[in-house]
Amino acid sequence: MSFYTPDNFHQAGSVGFVLNKVRNQIAADMDTALKGLHVKAQHIGILMSLLRGSNTTPASLSRYLGVDSGLMTRMLDKLEALGLLVRSRDTVDRRVVNLQLTAVGQATALRITELAPDVLNARLRNFSEAEYDELRRLLHKLLND
């Protein structure tokens, strides 16, 4: 089934446009909540992955978060300059760079786990539990198609 045609396509009403606007609003809300931590919403995926011990190389983080290696390098440079993570060469394969949170980085990541739910819950405040479940289901369906 085709939902869009050249005759009915209007950017402002397209799914992609609306999803991007929602993402931007959530990121702006998150940036405001994280201001005192000196990190941005774009850093959350990195910090959460490292906190949980998954995707601990720049390459795996790039794939997981869907960002190119150049952006990943810039974000890691920023987090390293803030003292939140350290890079080290893998002892088995020197081509591989491993990432690890510092004590400050771990504290920051844990603080994010306290702040992020409030930001997301504020955006979802008008949803019923069933609507929330359906939204998640539909977003995953869209992502996995």
Query: How many beta-strand elements?
Result: 2
User: How large, in whole angstroms, is the Cα Rg?
Assistant: 18 Å
Helix fraction bin: 55-70%
Q: Output the number of helix runs.
A: 6
Shape by Cα distribution: globular
Oligomeric state as shown: single chain
Q: Which architecture does the CATH hierarchy give at level 2?
A: Orthogonal Bundle
Low-confidence runs of at least 5 consecutive residues: none
Which H/E pattern describes the elements?
A: HHHHEEHH
Structural class: mainly alpha
CATH class, please? Mainly Alpha
Summarize the biggest pleated sheet: 2 strands, antiparallel
The total tally of domains equals 1
Separation, N- and C-terminal Cα atoms: 14 Å
Look at the structure and name the CATH superfamily.
Winged helix-like DNA-binding domain superfamily/Winged helix DNA-binding domain
Task: Explain how this protein is built.
This protein is mainly α. The protein has a single domain (11-144), classed as Winged helix-like DNA-binding domain superfamily/Winged helix DNA-binding domain (Arc Repressor Mutant, subunit A). Helix content is 60%, strand content 7%. It has six helices and two strands, in the order ααααββαα. Strands 1-2 form a two-stranded antiparallel ribbon. A hairpin with a 7-residue loop joins β1 and β2. The longest helix has 21 residues, at 103-123. It is globular, with a radius of gyration of 18 Å. The chain starts with 14 loop residues before the first helix and ends with a helix. The model has no long low-confidence stretch (mean pLDDT 95).
